[in-house]
């Protein structure tokens, strides 16, 4: 692709699209650590129209203003578009202020979900913000750039979907029309590399805690199978092999998802991916195809075991649907993750126990527990404002969100912390039992995938996130059992290696050598298996035997230490003349 420079005739200005840093450090990176897909779509449309645009992720730079200023000075942008969530709005405000200090003429444009709902608040209180994009951003942003290019300020009012100041009077134009055929947007993978992708815009659900209905509307627009898979394929060729599909409900159109899965398999794209769905939007057929196409995890919004709480959230699902979804998902070797929310009005020990009882029934292998927080644009926010007589000026405080319990006289911080601890402790103590109880569908076509599922889960207990959690009992034994289950289905490199390391840790080096030798029968060129078995032989004092495994990879940097150590043990300190031995 031809590199665009400012010297090109069609290039008038330098445009930055910035994802600002959050106010607080993140517990879960996926919450707010990655650039939203919307910025890539805007960037792609601008690139398609020959504009010089760059996307910058400023997560993690909140304590490095000098670095931000250095970037702004070096890039010297004429226009900056900011992707604004509630969590990063203060970062956007601060960066916009820095940009104005460096160049008072720079145009700062806020867009995204928080900007769409707080457009008046931003323009009333923050003069460093020039324009707000109040909805879907691609063509609105492009139209603004064209106006800036022509220096035709009189035509600003004709652009739909913006808010701005006109002689200190705040003006909001008519909403932009939704893009009916989102396939007409340029594919962002032509220009950028990223992992979070999206099939749809909109969600038919109407959960009270979610801003999607207010931002996108409840009518869902879909990319075609060809557009979506082409995006994956282009990213795959750039080296991306794991994807997060960030749609609120990826499986709304079952036939479309199955078509996508078949196309991924047909194109031999060796990928894995995680998705989000609803418990009432899956069945055997779709899960089977999703697994064969690389799906490794599905997250479901369960929210609560209390029917009263689910009604408060307007979560229109039944307990039977929840049980069915988790049973089916894990039957196909897809990790089922559950989202729960606690701390809503009326939360008490009984409702928390109902959630714990449900967790023990559905046996999720991963959970995320959120304290109920409130954001602009949600039904809960409107309810909150009326109940407590609060307006948008609350967002002048340096907060990311509003925690419901902080205003509810029947709840306290102590109660909420106790609820959270009770939920997490119960889940963690039950988790090994959940893992041991998994029974996968007996389908020989899926056996290698079943092995992969069990070995990945085992690594989570032995080396991953769960290995650090003190409340989980018997982690090593759980990992061992899961590796053995994996090998009952198919030879699995990860399972052989993990078992070898587990037995090493137990001091049973003979058993480690036995399982690693079996692994080498299937994976004779594995450097990791050679290294691990060599270390077991070293622990038995058999250094010549260990050396024979290390020397198969004598050019490897990680083997160098062990080769050196074996030479010293075998031949003594004066061994330099032996280093060239085969």
TrEMBL record:
CDD domains: Radical_SAM, radical_SAM_B12_BD. This is Cobalamin-binding radical SAM domain-containing protein. TPR repeats lie at residues 493-526. Residues 15-155 form the B12-binding domain. It comes from Desulfonema limicola. Its cofactor is [4Fe-4S] cluster. Keywords: Iron, Iron-sulfur, Metal-binding, S-adenosyl-L-methionine, TPR repeat. SMART domains: Elp3, TPR. Residues 189-406 form the Radical SAM core domain. Gene3D superfamilies: Cobalamin-binding domain (3.40.50.280), Tetratricopeptide repeat domain (1.25.40.10), tm_1862 like domain (3.80.30.20). One of its GO terms (cellular component) is cytosol. The lineage of its organism: Bacteria, Pseudomonadati, Thermodesulfobacteriota, Desulfobacteria, Desulfobacterales. One of its GO terms (molecular function) is cobalamin binding. InterPro entries: BchE-like, Cobalamin-bd, Cobalamin-bd_sf, Elp3/MiaA/NifB-like_rSAM, Methyltransferase_Class_B, rSAM, rSAM_horseshoe, rSAM_sf.
């Amino acid at each position: 692709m031809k590199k665009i420079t400012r010297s090109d005739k069609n290039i008038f200005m330098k445009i930055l699209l910035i994802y600002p840093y959050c106010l607080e450090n993140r517990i879960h990176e996926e919450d707010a650590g990655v650039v939203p897909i919307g910025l890539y779509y805007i960037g792609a449309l601008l690139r398609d129209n020959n504009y010089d645009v760059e996307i910058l992720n400023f997560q993690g730079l909140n304590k490095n203003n000098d670095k931000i200023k250095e970037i702004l000075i070096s890039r010297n942008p004429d226009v900056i578009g900011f992707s604004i969530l509630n969590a990063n709005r203060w970062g956007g405000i601060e960066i916009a202020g820095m940009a104005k200090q460096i160049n008072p003429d720079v145009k700062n444009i806020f867009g995204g979900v928080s900007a769409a709902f707080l457009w008046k608040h931003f323009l009333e209180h923050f003069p460093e913000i020039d324009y707000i994009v109040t909805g879907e951003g691609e063509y609105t942003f492009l139209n603004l750039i064209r106006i800036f290019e022509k220096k035709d300020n009189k035509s600003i009012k004709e652009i739909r979907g913006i808010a701005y100041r006109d002689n200190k009077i705040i003006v909001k134009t008519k909403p932009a029309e939704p893009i009916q055929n989102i396939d007409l947007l340029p594919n962002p993978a032509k220009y950028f590399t990223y992992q979070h992708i999206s099939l749809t815009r909109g969600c038919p659900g109407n959960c009270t805690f979610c801003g999607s209905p207010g931002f996108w509307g409840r009518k869902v627009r879909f990319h075609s199978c060809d557009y979506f898979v082409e995006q994956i394929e282009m990213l795959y060729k750039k080296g991306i092999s794991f994807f997060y599909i960030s749609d609120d409900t990826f499986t709304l159109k079952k036939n479309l998802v199955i078509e996508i899965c078949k196309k991924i398999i047909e194109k031999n794209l060796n990928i894995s991916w995680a998705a989000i769905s609803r418990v009432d939007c899956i069945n055997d057929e779709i899960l089977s195809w999703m697994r064969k196409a690389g799906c490794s995890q599905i997250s479901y919004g369960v929210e609560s075991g209390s029917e009263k709480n689910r009604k408060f959230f307007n979560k229109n699902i039944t307990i039977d649907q929840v049980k069915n979804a988790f049973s089916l998902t894990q039957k196909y070797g897809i990790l089922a993750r559950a989202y729960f929310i606690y701390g809503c009005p009326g939360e008490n020990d009984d409702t928390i126990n109902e959630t714990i009882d449900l967790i023990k029934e559905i046996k999720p292998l991963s959970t995320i527990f959120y304290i109920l927080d409130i954001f602009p644009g949600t039904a809960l926010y409107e309810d909150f404002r009326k109940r407590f007589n609060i307006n948008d000026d609350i967002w002048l405080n340096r907060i990311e969100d509003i925690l419901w319990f902080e205003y509810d006289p029947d709840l306290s911080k102590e109660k909420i912390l106790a609820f959270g601890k009770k939920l997490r402790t119960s889940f963690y103590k039950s988790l090994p039992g959940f893992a041991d109880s998994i029974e996968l569908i007996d389908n020989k076509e899926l056996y290698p995938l079943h092995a992969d599922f069990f070995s990945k889960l085992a690594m989570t207990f032995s080396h991953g996130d769960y290995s650090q959690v003190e409340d989980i009992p018997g982690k090593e034994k759980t990992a061992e059992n899961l590796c053995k289950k994996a090998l009952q289905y198919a030879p699995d490199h990860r399972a052989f290696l993990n078992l070898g390391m587990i037995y090493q840790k137990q001091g049973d080096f003979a058993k480690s050598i036995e399982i690693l030798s079996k692994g080498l029968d299937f994976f004779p060129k594995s450097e990791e298996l050679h290294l691990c078995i060599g270390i077991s032989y070293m622990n038995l004092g058999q250094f010549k035997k260990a050396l024979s495994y290390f020397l198969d990879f004598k050019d490897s940097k990680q083997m160098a230490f062990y080769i050196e150590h074996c030479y010293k043990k075998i031949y003594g300190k004066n061994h330099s003349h032996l280093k060239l031995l085969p």
